[in-house]
Design brief:
heterotrimer, A mainly alpha (about 300), B alpha/beta (about 250), C mainly alpha (about 325), A: about 300 residues, two-stranded antiparallel sheet, 2 strands, about 70% helix, globular, C: mainly alpha
């Protein structure tokens, strides 16, 4: 392989990871909430968008470091309020009602943001330490010549990987995680064992919202920050969840990065690039109707 | 009475490492009431699900009425003439009692799908009569316009039986028909089952309640740990030491 | 009987609608959306399957109509026929993919595949669709050289809406319609009662897509222009909102919802300015939370409350519900 080809492929992999990073973060929360609570949250894109808006505002006033600490925390609180104040009244109602009410909420959030900040993209300046480029050839000997990549995008990839690792560690090594994982398998059984999973629902929901907040705070500078961005990212994130297998966290990670790669590597054919994720979804659904890592029994009637 | 209508031959089924059914052979004679009993986890539900096509056996064959059941969907099984009564009464709760029995009546007339978009049900007299008859048969003829969800559990069970009866199935599978019922409801259900049995319909009953089993069955098959350990008439099974052992073993756990 | 009531209301709209502040042409638009909503109710109201992708059928049909008018003939008949055929084929394929699993799965996938058509219209098909600008420069549609404008369009739409409503009611009362409602009530029982649930669901999906296709086609005949918004998820969202507001499963309700929504968007929005969608979103959430049966249920409750006050004897009737 010639050096320039290696460089090229390597950069496209990075771009794929970076594009996938946001999908992965949004899809993780979606699938976590779906897996434990059985709720499909159509307002999850709106939570991501709130994260981005909060980050812009807080970063503007108190600096970026404050923003990246405050935003996930804020979103966690919003998630808990949302679950306690709205979602929990819908556990015993048909799934359609859950979808409808979260869809309504998504519209309300979107229109409120539009009212306050206008319909246009608001600029999200990078912090000084996050701007510029990273000269990758200085670090990686297999790259030839001059190979650079925007520093912020590297940070975004890094943050998403750390978040994924932290979430998996939380679920793997804590008692809370054990219960949540058991709940994802069979929530009825837990209730049978007398474990109060309902109280933990709020925390799970908050966790999902928090991850969406992280996606918003770190993804905002890369995407746009406008009232449409929530829905724009919700749709591919749904596909990620479906392709990965509903309720499967590793599936969401795998599928998210896979879609990122698909977009990145189809960049030469710009027309196809727009619909590549849907084509991938169609193929996966035809070959594996349950998704890549989907389990039998989930979402079946 | 001597011809087997359902023939389960050498059926095995595993879930992961667990062998739920092991080399099961079972013949259900036409017109008989055949009960499946056994301690928890014996494989009764698995066997029932294999019979309805919900599960594919790993090995062995199931022959119903001269037809081998393989890769069939539940609606195909039903169209062949097997109806099923579920553990929790499965009805159409938001629909009226009459609609509940009209649906199977239309399914019997039209098969598994028909795009009769513009037919007026009121004009399908024959179908209507069948639906009303079935409700009358289970004693629910007085509330035909009522929504099914307001029925008591016992009446829901009656309605479900009516849904199955409309189709005049060759074989009726009942999965713990008296589960969760009060004593008087259980008794009236037994009465009902006896009453409809006089018409020569073959039935397979999975049941925990021994009073139900021994008062209804012509033949009883006992399953334990995925295998058949005994089979015979009620009196034979009652005295069989293996059966007693299997049930005692459960109690000790 | 309800069909006659609807026919009278619809056909006399040009006379009374301006009196309540509606501008000329809005009545046509309302009836086009009413057609869209009736068809949607056959899917959502009867089977309970919530699609977020019906903009695809509306939009594709609009594009096909536009392209037929532009490249083939200004006659509306071949344009409408071609639109329905293309949409039906697409609906069968999308339905096959999205109806394989449960209802939630269906909602997610229809949203996603709906957006696929939006993305495709703006990218790989942009030479045909005019991309972001929409499809413009269409000739005035005509029927056997009679130009289709204002009143002509209105009466064409009104007649089709009445026929559409009549057909939907017939379907609702047929054994087929009963099976669709049984899908919503208990799919497992239906399957074990010998009915091919998949075929029924797919049929309902395709029928609703055909209604969407007629509506999309009429939209272009009404205003010879195809906006990209027609294929956008917001069109599906609007359809969902109007159906739920009016009262899902009642056929009449979604039409009321359509009228309310367009009236709100075009007349009341003058008082609310940019925030009309926010208000609508809040109203929508309120209805979903407290009044899942929509306006129709609200009217019934009101009627019962009034009847209950008039005579205590009737009060028990309401309580038994």
């Amino acid at each position: 392989m010639s050096g320039s080809l290696i460089n090229h492929v390597f950069l496209q992999i990075l771009t794929g990871l970076q594009l996938g990073a946001i999908y992965v973060l949004i899809a993780l929360g979606l699938t976590l909430i779906f897996g434990t609570l059985g709720v499909v949250n159509f307002a999850h894109g709106a939570l991501f968008m709130l994260g981005a808006y909060f980050a812009v505002i807080i970063a503007g006033k108190f600096g970026f470091l404050t923003a990246i600490i405050a935003v996930p925390f804020l979103l966690f609180i919003i998630g808990i309020i949302m679950e306690r104040g709205l979602i929990r009244f819908f556990y015993n109602r048909p799934h359609t009602d859950q979808i409808l009410v979260t869809f309504g909420l998504a519209i309300v959030v979107q229109e409120t943001l539009k009212w306050i900040f206008g319909a246009n993209n608001i600029p999200f300046p990078l912090p000084r330490w996050g701007g510029g480029i990273l000269k990758l050839h200085e670090w990686l000997p297999f790259l030839e010549g001059f190979v650079a990549y925007p520093k912020w995008r590297m940070i975004l990839i890094f943050v998403s990987l750390v978040t994924v690792a932290a979430l998996f560690a939380l679920l793997q090594f804590t008692r809370f995680g054990l219960i949540v994982r058991a709940g994802m398998r069979d929530s009825e059984m837990l209730r049978f064992l007398g474990i109060n999973i309902t109280r933990r629902f709020a925390i799970v929901f908050g966790l999902g919202a928090m991850i969406a907040g992280i996606a918003g705070a770190f993804g905002g500078p890369v995407t746009q920050v406008d009232p449409e961005v929530g829905m724009a990212f919700l749709v591919p994130s749904f596909l990620v969840v479906v392709i990965g297998g509903m309720g499967s966290l590793p599936g969401a990670v795998l599928a998210g990065f896979m879609l990122g790669m698909a977009i990145s590597f189809s960049a030469q054919y710009s027309a196809i690039q727009q619909i590549i994720i849907y084509l991938v979804a169609v193929i996966v659904l035809l070959v594996r109707p349950r998704g890549l890592l989907g389990q039998k029994g989930v979402m079946e009637e | 009475m001597t011809k087997p209508i359902l023939d389960v031959s050498r059926v095995s089924k595993s879930f992961g490492g667990l062998r739920a059914l092991q080399d099961v052979n079972l013949q259900v004679m036409e017109g008989s009431i055949h009960s499946l009993i056994g301690p928890n986890g014996a494989g009764k539900s698995t066997l029932l699900n294999v019979m309805t096509g919900l599960l594919q056996p790993d090995e062995g064959t199931i022959t119903f009425d001269g037809r081998t059941l393989q890769n069939v969907t539940p609606h195909e099984i039903n169209q062949y003439g097997i109806a099923k009564v579920f553990q929790t009464p499965a009805i159409f709760p938001e629909m009226t009692l009459l609609e509940n029995t009209l649906i199977p009546a239309f399914a019997r007339r039209d098969g598994s799908f028909r795009a009769n978009l513009f037919e007026t049900p009121e004009h399908a007299h024959e179908v209507y009569e069948q639906a009303e008859e079935a409700l009358a048969e289970v004693g629910l003829q007085d509330h035909m316009k009522q929504e099914a969800r307001y029925l008591s559990r016992g009446d829901k069970r009656r309605l479900e039986l009516a849904i199955c009866l409309v189709q005049k199935p060759k074989l009726l599978l009942l999965d713990e028909p008296t589960a969760g019922m009060a004593r008087h409801e259980t008794e009236s259900t037994i009465q009902l089952l006896k009453q409809i049995s006089s018409k020569g319909m073959t039935k397979v009953i999975v049941e925990h309640d021994m009073s139900v089993v021994f008062s209804l069955s012509d033949r009883i098959t006992v399953l334990a740990q995925g295998q058949i350990i005994a089979e015979g008439g009620p009196d034979e099974v009652r005295g069989n030491p293996k059966v007693i052992e299997a049930y005692l073993g459960e109690e000790q756990e | 009987m309800p069909v006659i009531v609807f026919a009278v209301i619809a056909l006399t709209m040009p006379f009374w609608f301006p009196l309540v502040g509606g501008y000329a042409g809005l009545d046509t638009k309302i009836l086009i959306w009413a057609i869209f909503a009736i068809g949607f109710d056959i899917l959502l109201g009867f089977t309970g399957y919530l699609s977020f992708g019906h903009a695809a059928f509306f939009g594709v049909s609009a594009y096909v109509t536009g392209l037929m008018l532009l490249h083939y003939s200004a006659n509306i008949i071949p344009a409408m026929i071609a639109s329905v055929i293309v949409t039906t084929i697409i609906a069968v394929m999308v339905g096959f993919l999205t109806l394989r699993r449960s209802g939630i799965y269906f909602s997610i996938l229809t949203l996603a595949f709906g957006e696929m058509f939006y993305a495709a219209a703006l990218s790989i098909f942009s030479d045909w669709t005019g991309g972001d600008n929409g499809l413009t420069g269409l000739p005035t549609p005509e029927l056997f050289s009679m130009p289709f404008k204002e009143n002509n369009v209105f009466y064409l739409v009104a007649v089709l809406a009445i026929i559409g409503y009549y057909i939907a009611r017939r379907i609702g009362n047929s054994p087929f319609g009963m099976m669709l409602r049984a899908v919503k009530s208990n799919q497992t029982r239906l399957e074990f009662t010998g009915l091919d649930v998949k075929k029924y669901k797919l049929s309902a999906f395709v029928i609703s897509a055909i209604y969407a296709s007629v509506a999309g086609s009429l939209m272009v005949i009404y205003e010879p222009y195809v906006a990209t918004e027609f294929v956008h998820w917001s069109t599906s969202g609007k359809l969902v909102i109007m159906s739920v507001l009016g009262g899902v499963g009642t056929l009449f309700g979604p039409m009321i919802g359509a009228a309310f929504m367009l009236y709100f968007e075009n007349v009341i929005s003058a008082f609310l300015q940019e925030q009309w969608l926010l208000v609508l979103g809040l109203v929508f959430m309120f209805i979903v939370i407290f009044l899942p049966g929509g306006f129709v249920e609200g009217a019934q409750r009101l009627k019962r409350a009034i009847a209950g006050k008039a005579g205590d004897g009737n009060a028990s009737k309401g309580a038994s519900e």
